[in-house]
Design goal:
This protein has about 250 residues and is α+β, with helices and mostly antiparallel strands. It folds into two domains: about 10-125, Gcn5-related N-acetyltransferase (GNAT) (Aminopeptidase, 3-Layer(aba) Sandwich), CATH 3.40.630.30; about 135-235, Gcn5-related N-acetyltransferase (GNAT) (Aminopeptidase), CATH 3.40.630. It has six helices and twelve strands. A twelve-stranded mixed β-sheet has the order 1-2-3-4-5-12-6-11-10-9-8-7, with helices on both faces. Strand 10 (about 185-190), helix 5 (about 200-215) and strand 11 (about 220-225) form a beta-alpha-beta unit. The longest helix has 15 residues, at about 15-30. The radius of gyration is 21 Å and the shape is elongated.
Length: about 250
């Protein structure tokens, strides 16, 4: 019997790929947008092998429904075998029957593979990392932790945050951070009451959330739609900067 010793992708468990994924997270050293897909059971894992030895891994999630299985969103190969990345990735696409590739532009291994193997590539979201400490003040506005007696406004996009901005006796903005991302990173979010927008309250509540994030032992990061210019401006004013883009493309057939 002849044993196939060439590059191949073999279905595996999360436990199988965890040592390799630890190397991936260390090398990336940034917030991973779809990190929680792994521990939530929303991904299929594959070991990438050469001569039947695991030299990397690949992960598949859903494009529109995260619980689906049609999109490569992580691919890692250990440095001694990087020259075989293309063949290993081709094996991953064949084994998984993935139809799309979704990656962060700051992933220096997967991004070139995306451009080689995909078409119709677009960038639906912008990724942010913390950059500078800001000290914004707005006369009459106070940023603080939310109290039980507070009466927040109806939220349309984001959850009710743990931090608020109070102005003229009313809560005009709320914000906070989510911790279901790869440690030590956390994801900032905020929402401003519709009639109080474009006055800096969003930046003020993000400034407070950033401070609380660090005190909790987390590094603040954020993401937003590429078309959401007000959100992008608010994040920038709060001391964050663009660290990359979420890229999505359809696999060439």
């Amino acid at each position: 019997m002849t044993i196939d010793m060439g590059p191949k992708a073999v279905k595996a468990t999360l436990r199988d790929v965890e040592p390799l994924r630890a190397l991936y997270l260390q090398e990336m050293h940034t917030q991973i947008r779809f990190d929680s897909c792994h521990w939530r059971g929303w991904s299929d894992e594959y070991l990438l092998k050469i001569e039947d030895e695991p030299v990397g891994y690949g992960s598949i999630k859903g494009k529109d429904d995260l619980k689906g299985r049609d999109t490569v969103f992580e691919c890692y190969v250990i440095p001694p075998f990087r020259s075989s990345s293309r063949d290993l990735f081709a094996a991953l696409l064949a084994a998984s029957s993935a139809t799309h590739i979704n990656c962060q532009s700051n992933d220096l291994l997967l991004t070139p593979l995306l451009y080689e193997f995909a078409r119709d590539i677009n960038a639906p979201a912008v990724l942010f990392e913390d950059h500078v400490v800001t000290q914004l003040e707005i006369p009459g506005a106070v940023a603080r932790r939310r109290r039980d007696e507070d009466k927040p406004f109806d939220h349309k996009a984001e959850p009710l945050g743990d931090y608020v901005v109070e102005f003229e006796g009313e809560v005009v903005a709320t914000g906070g951070f989510l911790t279901h991302y790869n440690p030590p990173f956390a994801d900032l979010y905020m929402e401003v009451r519709e009639d109080r927008r474009r006055r800096g309250f969003g930046t003020l509540v993000l400034q407070e959330a950033k401070k609380a994030c660090y005190l909790a032992g987390r590094i603040p990061a954020a993401r937003t739609s590429i078309d959401n210019l007000p959100s992008r401006a608010t994040l920038t004013k709060a001391g964050l900067r663009v660290s990359g883009f979420m890229l999505l493309g359809a696999v060439k057939r």
